Amino acid sequence: MNNSIPVVSIDGPSGAGKGVITQRLASLKGYHILDSGAIYRVIGLAARKDGLDFKNQSGLVELAQGLDISFRGTGDSENPLSVWLRDQDVTREVRTNEAGVDASKLASISELRLAIRSLQRSFKRSPGLVADGRDMGTVVFDEAQVKFFLTASPEARAERRYKQLKDKGIDVSLPDLFLSIQNRDLSDMEREIAPLEPARDAVIIDSTAMTIDEVFYFVLSVVEEKLG
Ligand code: DC
Hints:
Rossmann fold; 50% helix
């Protein structure tokens, strides 16, 4: 394990602001980004495209092992990475709420989580990594030098997600989104494998009453203190 490459993990429930904080931090430090949720989302999309049943665990594992996924730079600082499956740009498709629900279902399959472990770890490259997910600091990058658990009330998270999806031109209803976020939180927290929980050594941030700038500068101050 190469511990000279710094890893900052940012875990937490959906809509807590992990994506934006990850992007801003990575861009400021010049670090790589791992959007681990996008990997589960792409597996769901690939399974649907291939007509693979979500109960077919060995089929899903095989699909994940041969997954032709790539993240490509867009040059847009607000959305720096596009997501590609095979030779198709699927960035928009994987961002829908339905893709998130599919991802959460697949994420409870332990064999699948193990099958993508080395893909996830391959993002740890010099000069450093910011890893966004649910189990980045607890499981995948247990050795991360700086760990955050970013959360907010379910109401605040549903509203943020609603605005994000609307801004991307994706149609969705706020009450439906609120329910869906609550269900997804429950299944992410209650699953047996790698449940959503703060790492023992994580800095916990409740961003309900904070602006994104306040969260970012706090995160940055912790990172600078720990990594220099
Ligand atoms: O962060 P996201 O909304 O894109 O993640 C989609 C789902 O994938 C989420 O509900 C749970 C799952 N996931 C996970 O189990 N572990 C991760 N490290 C990232 C996401």
